[in-house]
Amino acid sequence: MNKPNSIILGAITSACLSVSSLSALPPELSQTTFTSPGLTPSPACLSAHPNGDIFVGVDMCGSLGKGPGKGKIVRLRDTDNDGVADEHTIFATLDNPRGLIAVGDKVYVIYTIWKDEKTFGAMHLGVLEDKNKDGKADGPPKILVSDISCKTHNQSRGADHTTNGMRMAIDGWIYIAVGDYGMHEAKGTDGTVLTMLGGGIVRVRPDGSELEIYTHGLRNIYDVAIDPLMNIYTRGNTNDGGGWNVRFIHNIQTAKYGYPMLFKNFTDEIIPALVDVGGGSGTGSMFFQEPGWPEKYNNVPLMGDWGLSKVLIHRVTPDGATFTQKQEDYLTTNRFTDIDVDASGRLYTAAWAGAGFKGSAKEGHIERIVPKDWKYTAAPKFKELADDALISLLRSDSATVRLHTQQEILNRKLDTATAVLAIAADSSASIESRVAAIFTYAQLLGEKANTGLASLTNDTKVREFALRALADRKPLSNKAPIEPFLTGLQDKNPRVQAVAAIGLGRIGRADTAKALLSVAIPPAPMKASTQKGHQGGPHATPHSAVVIPHLAVQSLVSLNATEACLAAIDSPSQDGALWALRLMHDPKAVDGLISKLNNSNDKNLQNKILTALARLYHKEEPYDGSWWWFTRPDTHGPYYKAIKWSESDKIEEVYRAHWNKADAAQKAFLASNADKHRMNLSGIGKAPPAKTAKKSNKGQVGKTAIEDVMIALDKMKGNPKAGKKALASLACAACHNINPSDPVKGPDFNHIGSLLSKEQIAEAIIKPAATIADSWVTVTMNDGTPHMGTLISKNDNEVVVNNIAGISAKLNAADVKSIEKQTSSIMGPGLANELSLQQFVDMVSYLHSLK
User: Fold this and answer.
1) What is the DSSP string of 94-126?
2) 3-class secondary-structure state, position 569
């Protein structure tokens, strides 16, 4: 490449960074390039087998590409432990591998079936086996859960909001990150059918049975991080432009997190996120607990972000039944996608690099990271160990070792339960080992474990986990003793209270409703946090006081405890009872509320009941999988597609009767209440908005998700001549060379089309901070003087850098202390926001023509 081309945008996007451009690391760690792009291009996911085999899901469709024949799973080995893969096999060929778990002889995979370039078949969770250990799957995947993401959206748009990563937890469940495409009639091996509108976490047993929703109301998660004590964390993925930034969430079973219907206007009904950290694109994640690593990088959730090209640590501090957090940078990896660790303590990260939105056969790689003083220790050979030696590994300090020890114990199906229970009861063992033993014991014996688990509820250190294990499996939970849960509701430990409230809902006994109502009393509404780092409102401000009431209400709804809640309206549990009742679309609930309304002279109570009735006036239309809310959904709530039901007319009649006899102040309340709940009652509150004339296209770019801009780039025809005019209307010429005769200032546009695709150019404009040019540097002299600008040339004698005005500084190489790529851009992220999509497409077409 000639000299002028070498500074064209420097490589304006991370797409042009070389594979040798490894992660930026803390000084205590070291890394190697484990694979090259030719071996693992477009790595969407990875899983480390405990023995060090690395399985990489190659998906050359990316987030917006389509069609068959572009995916595979590659198995990698580092036989000499030097940090570079020296053996590989194509383990399986399948479309869109989006999540992997390698355990024993099995590899669980989320994948798709494309019938042809235009016809999407389905997305499934399946399992592959390699019983002959030749590094290749013995056959196609056995389907465990069919249709785990909606067909319509995957076909029409691509995979950017689909179902993605998954983890196996120490309780033996597989937890799956479902993007906000949701799922329609997903089906497990036992016939369980599940539909979910929007995003959340679902879980399933490793044999495909007992499929269920774990949490709901997440925007677009890519993965889950699960710690040894069953805390689950997610980092959202956002490009919607609607103020819905990346949120770090502690996911608690049965909880609702509110996207998009509740988080803005019904925040008191959700469990808020721990923090809103602004823009980004959350991807792979894990909880890291491995011996031999520096303490400050151990026992932490590691949360990846593709948009920021980073892995971040969220340091969590207990706060009631949940946490507060503090985020900090950890690793910088070029377009990070996934992360995992083997049983020897080797950390692996996947870098999408410049593979773009539709994947690439030339970009993407895997890195291996270890402490600088790390020495290789072989992982245990679980299958070869005697029973006693195997069981003792539940005491390991490694989360990876404990999990795979458990799986081997379960595979043997031997009478090891007594020895496992002994570890669970051993107060000298670590809490992580005791928890691993509790869930191993529960899985070994099923309902026969209840006596042993019930005895462990007397131990305050493990009470929470024994209760969780007792109610963990719904088909078995009705055999669980009820007394430990009732006692647990009043425990001093709020985490025990939370598990007890959840467990009672799972056990399903209606006679426990009164106990749940006693803890369902909601706290005062949360105000927006002023804490540094919080960019959202109450929906992203930790609120530990709401957790127990929220979980109790979810269990009351699950129990359909209508009569108990109606009776509690006349008790101190009134507010919790009304919270639960407004979620119960049951004629008995409506009739009971109307009766209470008519028999009360308490204006405050009447208004609370009218609020509940307003909420019950509509219900959510059953989701049929045919539509999606796209990247800028309506966030008003409380329903997305509200429909009337059998009791709507009755509710309207009562509401109008109160309106007709209300004074001005009461009418103001009723109108506001009707508007908030979108009752759309003629003459009460605001009329539904009329359809307006077609809006101007101006400013479309600033209001459109980057994925939708990329889709427009494909569908719309660009006019380079018009694009030149659009470019001239922006401030680009102040920093970039547009004409060949211009002095070099910022990265050069003259030959950009010969280096970058249209997609890469578009991304660099929309997300400049994520696509810093290699040539955009700070040269620091020995005396501390900085020179910032574009690196023109360097050799043993001289370093030349041009500042933003195009003025050259010719520096003596001997006087240069360092040359570092800048980590921020002076180009604002909203530079093209005022353009229409057509203007933007024209401008990109013009820039791409400069070759």
Assistant:
1) -EEEEEEEEETTEEEEEEEEEEETTEEEEEEEE
2) helix
